[in-house]
Every structure is written in structure tokens, then in C-alpha cells.
Amino acid sequence: MNNYKIKNWYVILLLLFILFFLRFSLIIKSYLLFYKFIGFLFSDFSTAINILDFGFADLIVSILLIVLVPSLILYEKNKNNLLAVVLNKKLNFSSFTVIILISFFIFAPLITDSNPNFQKDIGVTKLLPPLSSVDVITLKKVKVINKDKSTFLLNLKDDVVKNSFNENLIFADSVKLGEPVIFYQKGKEKEIQKNKLQSVNNIPLIEKKHFLLGTDEFGRDIFSRLVYGARISLLIGLGAVFISLLLGLSLGFLAGYPGGFTDSLLNRFTEVFLAFPIIFLIILILALFENSFFTVMLVLGFSGWMSLFKIVRGEIILLKKKDFFISAQMIGLARHKLLLKEILPIILAPVIVNLVLLYGNVILAESALSYLGLGVGNNYPSWGAMIESGQAYIDKAWWMIFFPGLALFFTLFAANNIGKEINIHYNPALET
Amino acid sequence: MKKELTKVLFKRVSTSLVVLFLLITFVFFLLRISPGDPSQKFISPRLSPELVKKVKESFDLNSPLLYQYKAFVINLAQGDLGISYNYRMPVVSVIEEYLPFTLIFASLSFIIQILSGFLLALITVKKRDGLLDRAISKISLATYATPSFVIGVILIFLFSEKLKVFPSSGLRSFDAGSFSFLQSLTDYISHLVLPIITLSLPGIAIYFKYLRDNLEDVYNKQFVINMRALGFTEKVITRKHVIPNAINPLISVAGIELGILFSGALITEVIFALPGMGRLTINAILTRDYPLVIGCSIVAGILIILSNLAADIIRASLDKRLIKGSLN
């Protein structure tokens, strides 16, 4: 039993295989679309560029990656590098969470079956509990008279890429077949001509739309909002941590290396930042200037560098007296080379641990900001904003706050644990 | 020793005040360079042009920045923080209304955090790796990873919506005017139970983790083993030697935490709609009430400086070497 352990890459491959299996037809259609699109790119460049939008590009990237990632894993797993070490680690709870989150991040268009902002027939779809489903009637598409070459491509794209609105779908509580077809929306009886509907063998096509985790107050699918919300959290976290890393490293180097006046000046500057509850400063800046994706990322990045600064400065002051560093200076290495080649490799371990913990803090801060209504705005679903909107329906719809709360909890828990694991990886003495 | 202590204190306070002044200058200029004009809210299109001009002049936002700053600094030196745009009252009296609640709320929560963290750490460290120890460690990790607004919303869901034990928001009931003293006291308490739990749980987890690690470290030190060998009772070792040694690094953490608590438990106050400094600050920021924003920052800064100072004094009185260390 000891020799046998579940490694991380087994799970990644298994999950990707399941995803591939579940969404097989979608993936095949997307590849067809991609093929046609490439053809168009060479024959009719401007039309092709017009077709290309974010959702389409997103889908293309995920269908390419769903093939590339497994091959990359199989290729890299036996090599001797950091990626292979990570892939061959034993699976635990936090690494599983991270795998899930990253696959949410990359494969969001494949995992979800509806756009996170999709809303139609709110009366029927709003506040549905988890695991519920409604009937969907599909109207026949209006025939496009202009038989262009690009029509096929556009139709295929409409079929594959999920839009935030589709006028050809009707959601209904129940449907009675007949002539005309009768359907019920919130107790109201409505009818529609049979020949307007899309049908197979002259029987109207009625599908079931499942809401795995229920819907919110606008009838939007909570599962897909959760999946796309992971993107916001991860992206903002990555960006903000990167900004903090740059600031902390460069300021720490500037303060620690020459010492003296710059050092005390920068120290006072850091104290200014530490002396004030930083969340107020963040809110101040976001409220005074506009709150968008990039401002949130920038502000969070600018507010998290203090701990890194302290670590880097302290380590550099210690390093300055070491022999190897002095000899490197004597040789005449440029300052940036001193930082990158002599200092960075040594302070890597504490810096990485700090970055991972910072990452958790940034995600927490982002969700708190979204909760206060100062997040990335309404165009993107965010976990904090989902909880905030769910609070008004707390007596009717617990799922609106439960699932995003759970997602946040798992993410933060995993970030804390992984910080600890990396720490142990670099300092095995800590493991007791 | 006393002379040295006052010297250290003077140095600390003066540098802190300089830092505070820099911070307020930063906030001042940030407010002025931001887009938007707060006086616009008070001008209706039907006002005559002269009146509009008068209103705009009363806000004093169109004169050059440095003149505004000079006036601000002179007023600040006289203790005048200006008049709040929204409340139409001096900033000082607005803050006077909100500060007492925050002070009481924060101190209560702080005491609960320290005491429960301390007790839990003591209990678990005595039965190391027992069932209780492992359970509490796991729970504290989980609490640490839960955002406080999630905790608050879950508590509201459980205790206000399902069980209907505690009210979900506010500080008093609607009919509180007719209550006797005892009734209004219980009213306050029942309104404060959920906020205090929400505010305290993450803090308890932090203190527990810190103290638990420190206590374990000290218990494994050589001198404790020596004392056991010499026949001291476990009680004496724990009380007189282990706890004072373990508690020292915690005090500065507690000072920082207390300062942040005093400046307003923002999220908790928003969830439960409590009249505290955090919500006052947020509202001031969102409605662009410039004097009030600066007033709140000053109060927050002073409270943070004071609590850090208190923590340093306590640490210095526990360990006299620290005074000499900070002199050099």
C-alpha cells in the first residue's frame, strides 16, 4: 500500500478525460468551427476578424488546451524539473482544490453549459433550487436569405459559443404537445404554433435544462457563475501578487542594498502603509476613482507589498556581509544582476511562501470588495458579489450564498495549506 | 530606567505622529485629485447662479490645491476638522457619536478573542495530539480560511432566519423607546451576540494558532525539562515560566490587531448594519464627504498608534531588555 499513491497527474488526466467524454459533441463541433475559421482567415480576413470575439477565442483556447495539456503532462512527468515534481506529488485535499480551480479557469467554456450572464424568462427560472430543471422549447431560426459563405460559420458559431442572450429559447414549467403547443410559465397558459418550433420527425423538440446548483434572482445559472467567478478570483490574484512581487523586490533591494538614508525613508514609507487599515485605503481609492478589473488588481497589488518588502530588505541586509556576495560585488556585477543572480535564488523560499499566502489574502480582499459593491463590476461574476446579492434572498434561497461561500472557503484553505507545504518543501526541518 | 522609558516613548510617539501626518496629507491630496465634485450634489439646477457660486465657494474646492492644504493644516493645528458635508455638523461631533460604540464593540471582541484563544491553546497544548487537540486545530484552520462575511451571513441564516433567536441587524429594536433599563440592556446584548461572534472567530483562530505554537516551543525548551527534573509542579512551571515566555511575541500582534479593530470592524458592521466607525468611514468615502473621511482617518491612525504603543509598553515592562534595544 505504501508504494501505491495517487499522484496529481492521474487526477488531472482523469478529470480531463471525463470532461472530454461529457462534452464530446461540443468539442467536435468546436474543432469543425476552428477549422472553418482558419480557412476563412486565409480567404476573407476581415470577415474572420469580425467573427472573432472573446467568447469564441476563449472556446478555441480551451479546446486546444484540452488536447495539449494531457500530452504535455505525459511528456513532462518523467523529467527532472519543478513541473514534474509538482505533478508527481501525492494528491491531497488542497492540491485537488487547486486542480479543480485551474481547470475551472482554463476550461470554463467547456465545463459550463450556459453563459454566466444568460437570462431568459426570469419568471420561470429565477431562484430555482439546486438540481432542478425546466423545459426548453426551441424556436425555428429565422431563415437568412442572404446565402453568404460566412452564414454557415456564423450559424455554427451561434450553436457552439454560448451567448448571454438567445431569443430562440423559451423556458417553461411544463409543456403540453398538441396543435397549438401549450406551455405554462408561472401558472400562465401560453400557446405557440407547432410549425414555429424546431422539430424532429414532426414532433417538437423539447429539452430539459438542468441547473446543477440552482439559479439566482435573475435566473442565471449559479454553477456557471461559480466557474467563471473562479477566473476573476484567480486572475486578479495572479495580477495583484505579481505587482506586489515587483514592488516588494525592487523596493526591498533599493532599501536594503545601499542602506542609510534611502533605507530609513522607505521604512517610514512602509510604516505609513502599515499604520492604516489597508482595506480603507483600498476602498478610498476604488470609490474615488472608478472600480474596474484593472484598478482592483492594481490597488490590491499596491497594497500587499509590505510584507515582501520587509522579508527582502531583511535578507539583503544579512546577505551583504556574506563572502560570496562581496566577491560578486568585487567582480563588478551590475546591480540588477546582483539582485537576480545572487540574491533572488537565496530568498526564493521565503518569498514564494509569502506569495502564496498573499495570494490567499488578495482573493479574500477581492471577495470582500465585491461584497461591498466595489469589485470588478457587473460584467463579470464574482464570488463576493454573488454572496452579497444572495443576502437579500437568505430566507428563500440558501444556495445563492452557500456555494460561492464554499468555493471561497476551499480556495483560501488550499492557499494556506499550499503555502505551508512549500515552506516544508524548502525547510524540511519544519516538518514535525 | 524611567528616564530611558520616557525617552523611548517620546521617540516612538513623535515618529508615529509624523507618519500619521504624512498619511493624512496623502489622503488629502488623493481626495482632491480624484474626479468628481462633491458640491454638485447640493446644487439643484433651479438655484440662481449667484447662489451656485456661493455654495461652491463654501466648499472651498476650487482654490489652488496648496492654498487648500495650507488652510487645512492651519485648521488641523487648531483642532478644527471642518464641517461634514452630509451631516451638516462639525466632524468632531459626528465622530463622537460613532466612536463609543466602536470602542465598546472592539474591546469586547478583543477580550473574547484573547481569552478564548488563550484558553483553547492552554487546554490543547496539555493534551498534545489528542482528539481534542487535532479537532480544534482543524477547526481553527477552517475558521481562518473562511471570510468573515461568509461567517456572518451563515450566522444570520442559522440564528435569525431558521431559529429566530437573535435579530439580524441594527443595534436596537424598533420599539426600544418604551423599554425599561433591563429590557434595553438585554435588547442591546441580543443584537450584539452575532456581530461579536462574527468579529471574534477569525481572531480567536489567529491567537490560538500563535499561542499554541509558542507554548509548544517553550514546553520543549531545556529549562522546562530541567525544572520538571528539579521537582517543580506542572502548575508552577506553566504559570510562572511557560506562559510569560510564550506570550511575549503575541503582544505586538495583539497591539496591531487591536488598532485595526478600533478603526472599525468594517465588514461586520456592514453585514449587521451597526453604527460604528467602519461604516461611517465607508459611507463618508462613498458619499465623498471629504472632511469626514479625513477625520475618520485621523481617528483610526491615532487609535492604531495608541494601541501599538500600549503593546510596546506592556512588552517592555515584561522584558526590560527591549527598552535598551529600541534606544540603539
Helix content of chain A: 55-70%
Quaternary organisation: heterodimer
The helix count of chain B comes to 13
In CATH, the architecture of the largest domain in chain A is Orthogonal Bundle
Computed CA radius of gyration of chain A, to the nearest angstrom: 27 Å
- Which whole number gives the mean pLDDT of chain A? 84
Give short descriptive properties of this protein.
heterodimer, A: 432 residues, mainly alpha, MetI-like fold, 3 domains, three-stranded antiparallel β-sheet, 17 helices, elongated, B: 328 residues, 76% helix, 0% strand, globular
Please tell me about this protein's structure.
The complex is a heterodimer of chains A (432) and B (328). Chain A is mainly α and 432 residues long. Chain A has three domains: 8-111, no CATH class; 132-147 and 161-211, no CATH class; 224-430, MetI-like (MetI-like fold), CATH 1.10.3720. Helix content of chain A is 63%, strand content 8%. A three-stranded antiparallel sheet of chain A has the order 2-1-8, with no helix packed on it. In chain A, strands 3-4-5 form a three-stranded antiparallel sheet, with no helix packed on it. In chain A, strands 6-7 form a two-stranded antiparallel ribbon. In chain A, helix 9 (222-256) packs parallel to helix 12. Chain A is elongated, with a radius of gyration of 27 Å. The mean pLDDT of chain A is 84. Chain B contains 13 helices and no strands. The two termini of chain B are 15 Å apart. The mean pLDDT of chain B is 84. The A-B interface holds A 268, 271-272, 275-277, 279-280, 283-285, 287-289, 360, 364, 367-368, 371-372, 384, 387, 390-391, 394-395, 398, 401, 405, 408-409, 412-413, 416 and B 15-16, 18-20, 22-23, 26-27, 30-31, 34-36, 141-142, 144-147, 149-150, 153-154, 156-157, 161, 259-260, 263-264, 266-267, 270-271, 281-282, 285-286, 288, 293, 296-297, 300-301, 304-305.
